[in-house]
Amino acid sequence: MTDDKDVLRDVWFGRIPTCFTLYQDEITEREAEPYYLLLPRISYLTLVTDKVKKHFQKVMRQEEVSEIWFEYEGTPLKWHYPIGLLFDLHASNTALPWSITVHFKKVVELLFFLKHFHCNRFLVSRVREWLLHSSNFPEKDLLHCHSKDVIEAHFMACIKEADALKHKSQVINEMQKKDHKQLWMGLQNDKFEQFWAINRKLMEYPPEDNGFRYIPFRIYQATTERPFIQKLFRPIASGGQLHTLGDLLKDVCPSAITPEEMWLSNLRIDLR
């Protein structure tokens, strides 16, 4: 995989043209114009939408602005899912640009009033708790994301989980903290070379191992209560032959392959 640089570049630079519009019930001082952006498929919404937030903050009172979140046709978009995954799950059949609605979790003026008149901290904290539960934020559907540190922690947790399956965590544990930071900064700043200078180490294995221990994968589902399927799957069968993508799908999610798609069984993809 580390030799397929052209393919890796194509995947990295995949973009989704997107139109952001402000939710109609948000309180604004003037009309909010839509904002257009090419979103990188491999990144996260809350990581690449600073310009979107700044654009809509210009028409809103600052005391009305707090945590930003997004939805598509009534479905809250999970910030911890990669953008490409969100699009494929919810909007792959839609016309472009992808239309995303922007929400701001409101901070009601009552809280500022209480602070201004130096009410006791207990009262302020109780009012804040009440506001959290009475705001428009979809608590049951979304995790809170108060800073990019939260995104970084989630991303690194996924990297460590994958390396535990591939290398028993040996590669990620041998890396220095600066390597972890370079990996993250490459993603955050959309720097292909910076990211892959470190990530290639996670995609290699000693020749004597003949592949990873297990293939880290998730099959996401949009129509069931189980959001994704994940299980242990080796890249090489007990008889020594390489597994294919079709083998994985037949083992993990056989209902995903129709008779017309049996060609996947003959698609020799190196899952090592």
Characterise this structure.
The chain has 272 residues and is α+β, with helices and mostly antiparallel strands. Helices cover 39% and strands 12% of the residues. The chain has helices spanning 5-12, 45-48, 50-57, 83-90, 109-116, 121-134, 148-167, 170-174, 177-188, 192-202, 245-252, and strands at 15-22, 35-40, 68-72, 75-76, 98-104, 219-220, 228-229. Helix 5 (109-116) runs antiparallel to helix 6 (121-134) and helix 9 packs across helix 10 (192-202). The chain starts with a helix and ends in a 20-residue tail after the last helix.
List keywords for this structure.
alpha+beta; two-stranded antiparallel ribbon; 11 helices
| Number of strand elements | 7
Strand proportion: 5-15%
Helix content: 25-40%
Shape: globular
The helix/strand order is: HEEHHEEHEHHHHHHEEH
- Count of alpha and pi helical runs: 11
What is the end-to-end distance? 8 Å
Strand order of the largest sheet: 2-1-5-3-4
Q: Mean of residue pLDDT?
A: 84
Q: Mind summarizing the main beta sheet?
A: 5 strands, mixed
Structural class: alpha+beta
Any low-confidence stretches, pLDDT <50, length ≥5? 108-114, 267-272
Q: Which value, in Å, is the CA radius of gyration?
A: 22 Å
